[in-house]
């Protein structure tokens, strides 16, 4: 059984890696894939061996939570969490201004000790209220032998705070008596928490844009429906609709569930209605619907009205299945993300070791006189090396890319397919039903008299789409069961150089295998049962949404409409998404490679008396995470 479950409490890639590791260690869990941007986990498990309650309990022990209760809404929980985060951020900035006023002498006090004690109270208040969640999470992580961003924040702020408390009460005795200048760093402990909270707040706002495609699709389904009860038509909540109910849909209203037309009328015809299905199929022209035709939830009658019998309701409607597919795809992982997740698990311990090493180097070089500098440098290293940007680099770009594809009626089942699609250099395409549309008005009594264009027509933009693919380095091969002359005719019509006639299902599989043996990365596009063998073998399998359910089940990508221009669009989106992933990873790694040495104080070796302070480290860390998300959101602007 597969389920996509919201996860509460994750803050960085180490968090998502820890949740994933915990779930995958449980008996009965086949696989668990955690998505940090969507705050969810896609779990494949055996319900006879483990329950959702067991998984929830296991995740609770390491400081996170799964939303499995029926009446509990992850959206509402996230809204409350965001409101709390906003409130804590505001208070933390007030505490920051207060401690800065005291530390920097904006307010005069009779003696230094009084100023330090007031700063201590402000810093402690900030830690207990604004930073409380960091310490609770870090403690739970530590008890389970784990570490994450909260561990780094907790360590750095606690060290800065405790060292400052020591200096407040014993600094003059220990350091002053030796002629060593001493300071307190309450402002550093406050600013670290303030900047981290600010970064999380900006991050959550930016992430909101990555889920807009899902919200858009969810908004396609109306909240109410008109149910027909005898002579009465009344409005009821959509949740009360059951299979078999008779419903009425009027001009401009959204079809509430999937169903079958019982009766229809419009100004244009007495027995049909025209419905806008562009939100599902991408088709710009309204579809004519008569008695017996299927209508889909979220589509809209342009004029007139219809009555329909509910056939699929709730989670069984096509739009619900599409939403579920997109959510699952956004929660899946690209191969490169697996590497990043493994790195995230060891990243925090490595950073802790680097911070300890930094402290020891400063202490060994300068002796006791340099202990304050050693502590400050170690704190800066702990703060600046947070793995947030690295963890967000891949999943955020994938989430935006898969959502953008869904808006273009391109349904991608998993992240690996989106990543692999960019590599294809050969495309095998079925003809009838995939490349061409059979003419429904054929008079088969005179079939012998039909040159060939009367039998079927090319799908919209087919030639243009295939030309774009071929110009981008993709060889196109058309497979047809037709005779040689018919296959040649349609290949020339579509601008295809390579074609094969009189093919059987096995022949389609053979051509895919042959191309793969030649070293090509092959995509197969088909719509029928006779394409399933080739679809299953291809590196990337693409089905046409109006084809058979079998073809769609096997395929990794489904094109919902008949417009084949979505083929090159999918390829372009794949290339841009993967390019965005590598951009994000590059900047995330470069950030750490450059900033960790600067925070450790490496410039002092070159007589440059400057380094990144803990306060600036927290600001840079927050900026790095937000910049990765904003960079990924540029995909939404892609034309």
TrEMBL record:
Membrane topology field: Multi-pass membrane protein
Protein name (Swiss-Prot/TrEMBL): Heavy metal translocating P-type ATPase
InterPro entries: ATPase_P-typ_P_site, ATPase_P-typ_TM_dom_sf, ATPase_P-typ_transduc_dom_A_sf, ATPase_P-type_domA, HAD-like_sf, HAD_sf, Heavy-metal-associated_CS, HMA_dom
Source species, domain of life: Bacteria
Protein family: Belongs to the cation transport ATPase (P-type) (TC 3.A.3) family. Type IB subfamily.
GO biological process: copper ion export; copper ion homeostasis
One Pfam family named in its UniProt record: E1-E2_ATPase
Signal sequence, renumbered to the chain: none
UniProt subcellular location: Cell membrane
Record keywords, A-Z: ATP-binding, Cell membrane, Membrane, Metal-binding, Nucleotide-binding, Translocase, Transmembrane, Transmembrane helix
Main location: membrane
Species this chain originates from: Prevotella aurantiaca
Stored PROSITE patterns: ATPASE_E1_E2 (PS00154), HMA_1 (PS01047), HMA_2 (PS50846)
Bilayer-crossing regions: 90-109, 115-139, 151-170, 182-202, 343-365, 371-394, 585-606, 612-633
Residue span, HMA domain: 1-67
Keyword Nucleotide-binding: yes
């Amino acid at each position: 059984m597969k389920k996509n479950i919201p996860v509460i409490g994750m803050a960085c890639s180490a968090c998502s890696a820890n949740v994933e590791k915990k779930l995958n260690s449980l008996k009965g869990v086949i696989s668990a894939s955690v998505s940090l941007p969507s705050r969810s986990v896609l779990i494949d498990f055996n319900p006879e061996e483990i329950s959702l309650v067991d998984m929830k309990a296991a995740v609770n022990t390491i400081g996170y939570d799964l939303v499995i209760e029926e009446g509990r809404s992850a959206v509402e929980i996230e809204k409350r969490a965001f409101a709390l985060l906003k409130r804590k951020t505001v208070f933390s900035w007030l505490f920051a201004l207060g401690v800065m006023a005291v530390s920097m002498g904006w307010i005069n006090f009779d003696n230094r000790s009084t100023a330090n004690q007031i700063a201590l109270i402000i810093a402690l208040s900030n830690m207990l209220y604004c930073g409380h969640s960091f310490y609770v999470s870090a403690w739970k992580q530590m008890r389970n032998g784990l570490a994450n961003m909260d561990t780094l924040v907790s360590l750095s702020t606690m060290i800065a705070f405790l060292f400052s408390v020591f200096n407040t009460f014993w600094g003059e005795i220990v350091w002053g008596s030796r002629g060593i200048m001493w300071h307190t760093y309450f402002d550093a402990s406050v600013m670290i928490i303030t900047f981290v909270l600010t970064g999380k707040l900006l991050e959550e706002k930016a992430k909101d844009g990555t889920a807009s495609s899902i919200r858009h699709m969810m908004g396609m389904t109306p909240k109410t429906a008109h149910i027909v009860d005898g002579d009465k038509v009344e409005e009821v909540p959509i949740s009360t609709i059951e299979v078999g109910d008779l419903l009425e849909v009027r001009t401009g209203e959204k079809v509430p569930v999937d169903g079958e037309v019982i009766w229809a009328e419009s100004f244009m015809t007495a027995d049909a209605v025209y419905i806008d299905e562009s939100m599902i199929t991408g088709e710009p022209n309204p579809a004519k619907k008569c008695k017996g035709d299927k209508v889909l939830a979220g589509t809209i009658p342009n004029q007139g009205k219809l009555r329909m019998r509910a056939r699929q309701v709730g989670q069984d409607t096509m739009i619900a299945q599409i939403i579920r597919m997109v959510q699952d795809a956004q929660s899946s992982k690209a191969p490169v993300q697996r590497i990043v997740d493994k790195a995230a698990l060891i990243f925090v311990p490595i950073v802790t070791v680097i911070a300890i090493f930094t402290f020891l180097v400063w202490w060994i070089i300068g002796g006791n006189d340099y202990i304050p500098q050693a502590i400050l440098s170690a704190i800066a290293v702990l703060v600046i090396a947070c793995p947030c940007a690295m963890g967000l680099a891949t999943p955020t770009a994938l989430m935006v890319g898969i959502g953008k594809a869904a808006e273009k009626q391109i349904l991608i089942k998993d992240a690996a397919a989106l990543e692999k699609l960019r590599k294809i250099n050969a495309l095998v395409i079925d003809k009838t039903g995939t490349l061409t549309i059979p003419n429904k008005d054929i008079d088969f009594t005179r079939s012998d008299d039909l040159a060939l264009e009367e039998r079927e027509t090319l799908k919209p933009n087919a030639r243009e789409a295939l030309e774009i693919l071929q110009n981008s380095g993709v060889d196109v091969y058309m497979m047809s069961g037709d005779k040689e002359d018919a296959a040649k005719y349609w290949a020339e019509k579509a601008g295809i150089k390579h074609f094969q006639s009189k093919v059987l299902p096995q022949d389609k599989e053979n051509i895919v295998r042959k191309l793969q043996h030649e070293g090509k990365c092959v995509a197969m596009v088909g719509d029928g049962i006779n394409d399933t063998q080739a679809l299953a073998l291809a590196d990337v399998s693409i089905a046409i949404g109006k084809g058979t359910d079998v073809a769609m089940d096997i395929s990794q990508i489904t094109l919902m409409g008949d417009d084949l221009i979505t083929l090159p669009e999918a390829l372009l989106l794949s290339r841009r998404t993967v390019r965005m992933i590598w951009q994000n990873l590059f900047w995330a790694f470069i950030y750490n490679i450059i900033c960790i040495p600067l925070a450790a104080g490496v410039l002092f070796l070159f007589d440059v008396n400057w380094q990144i302070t803990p306060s600036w480290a927290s600001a840079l860390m927050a900026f790095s995470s937000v910049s990765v998300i904003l960079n990924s959101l540029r995909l939404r602007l892609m034309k």
